[in-house]
Automatic annotation (TrEMBL):
Organism the protein comes from: Neogemmobacter tilapiae
Family: Belongs to the TolB family.
Annotated protein name in UniProt: Uncharacterized protein
Pfam families the UniProt entry points to: PD40 (PF07676)
Signal peptide positions on this chain: none
Length: 274
């Protein structure tokens, strides 16, 4: 499989290739500085300098089984990672420049997905109890008691904060296949933004609060598998004015985590060639 890291320019309506590699890379984050992207691959994290693109490994200490649920804090000082341990995926933070990870979640499995705009809270999904139900949780960035925001209404995933912190967008299949939902940061007011035939995952609000990016799978898709004909779509923050921007082979790893540029002019994604 060949991975193609790309940037979509919203104004131009087109993508440019940043990097192609025979390594399997996933889930680009855009650094708040705007100068580089962060991706994962083969259990590690890599920084891609946009001025001279290449895969530069980030020191993640003992965490050598990082999955595609990672992200950079709003102030650029920390990275949240989801690292597989003997108990399953657990969330850690480490300095943005690399270093020893600090455990945040006490229970597993847990998969990180979003930072609150003030940098104080992490949003993630986790399975607790019988481990068959995936729900949305939050936790202080330094660790502590987790707060459950959804309660087994279906498979919930991909929580990401609005730029003003007033709500959390996520996907859920509680009334059929996965669609885009929104709720307050405390779990209140849960509502579906829209309904269509596509299986919609991983909503990411733009930093300027004007657009919502999400990944659309073909009708009938179960979960969020790799290597399917998918589309990246934009809509407004209430789910209106939906547009399918580009179609390609992708899915798992394409935009699992926040991927907008700091100025909201572009977003990063990964497509794949088999």
């Amino acid at each position: 499989m060949r991975s193609i890291l790309q940037i979509w320019d919203v104004a131009r309506g087109s993508a440019r290739v940043v990097l192609e590699t025979d390594r399997h890379i996933e889930a680009p984050n855009w650094d708040p500085s705007g100068a580089n992207l962060l991706v994962n691959g083969e259990g590690y994290l890599f920084r891609v300098d946009l001025a001279a693109p290449s895969l530069a490994m980030v020191d993640t200490g003992f965490a050598d089984k990082c999955n595609n649920d990672h992200g950079i804090s709003p102030d650029g000082s920390l990275i949240a990672i989801s690292h597989h341990t003997a108990r399953g995926s657990e969330i850690f933070t480490l300095p943005a420049g690399g270093g020893t990870p600090k455990a945040i979640t006490e229970d597993a499995p847990s998969w990180w997905h979003g930072w609150s705009p003030d940098g104080k809270t992490l949003a993630y999904v986790a399975a607790r109890g019988d481990r068959r139900v995936i729900d949305v949780y939050t936790i202080p960035v330094g660790g502590g008691a987790e707060v459950r925001l959804t309660n087994g209404e279906g498979h919930c995933d991909g929580p990401d904060y609005s730029p003003d912190g007033s709500c959390i967008y996520y996907n859920c299949d509680r009334d059929g296949h996965a669609q885009i939902w929104v709720m307050g940061p405390d779990g209140s007011g849960q509502r579906k933004l829209f309904a269509d035939e596509y299986v919609n995952w991983f909503p990411h609000p733009s930093p300027d609060g004007q657009r919502l990016l999400y990944l659309a799978y073909p009708p009938g898709t179960l979960g969020h598998p790799p290597n399917l004909p998918v589309a990246l779509c934009l809509c407004d923050m209430e789910g209106g004015n939906r547009v399918r921007l580009v179609e390609f082979n992708g899915g798992q790893g394409t935009i699992n985590v926040p991927c907008w540029s700091p100025d909201s002019s572009a977003f990063a994604f990964v497509s794949y060639v088999i």
